[in-house]
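Lecture 7 notes: from sequence to structure.

We start with a single chain of 126 residues. Read the sequence below before looking at the structure.
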Amino acid sequence: WIGPEKGVIHLALGAVVNAVWDLWGKVLGKPVWRIVADMTPEQYVECIDFRYITDAITPEEAVAMLKEVQGGKEKRIEEALSSKAVPAYTTSAGWLGYGQDKMKSLLRETLAQGYKHFKLKVGGSV
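Now the structure, written as tokens:
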């Protein structure tokens, strides 16, 4: 996870940015997902650092794409809110170096918690 332009300072800054989003949500009394969902396409695009992606998409193209799907946004939000669960996965079930018995035990525990998807580390050369 740490590499060129992704050092400890970068990771720490990411934590600060996430904390600011959480604080914004607390101030507004909204979950962060709702703050983002309530943004206009222009406001949303203003939050994106396009420095390294303009060869794939420009801010103007991003705004245009978001405007195209604005019409169905509220319906999609209602559908998500009416759903009983959001698909998720856990990585706690398996890291490199865990033995077979430990893996089985952790997988049983996470299955009992309701997880159906797992991300596992299977080897250093894979």
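Residues 7 and 21 are 22 Å apart (CA to CA). Keep this in mind for problem set 3.
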